[in-house]
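Illustration 12: Response regulator receiver domain-containing protein.
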Amino acid sequence: MISDTCADIVYVEDDPLAGRLLEEVCRSSGTPMRVRTVHSRDAAVEAVAHEEPDLVLVSVEFGGAGGPSVLKDIHEKVDITSAPVVLFGNAENVVDISGAYESGADAYVQKPSNFSGLLNTVEQLVAPAQRTKQLYPHGTHAQPVRERA
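Figure caption equivalent — predicted structure in token form:
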């Protein structure tokens, strides 16, 4: 987990400007969020495997509409049941959206066209993780049961 006090987001995005934009929007919000933007397929798998994020956003357009294939790689290599995975893109085509779900996405969200829309979308996506962290400040990972002597 990147941080115990804020919602941790891994953003899989090959456009550095889009990554910086999301990072800046989240930094300027009143909601504690930390965004780590990764720019390659291998870095995405590594970040999700080792950082236990609260939310994984994958750009549909990653590598030229390769977001769904990156998501399949993540699912094949990492047990990602602890965080929602959302494909984030400009696709308005029903085929593109259905392909998002076929690749293992928990949701598909269209990228908003303005800062306030982007912030509102991300805040809604991280709200469940924020509530969980408030209820379980020491984490939600199950501990092994010890046998009584």
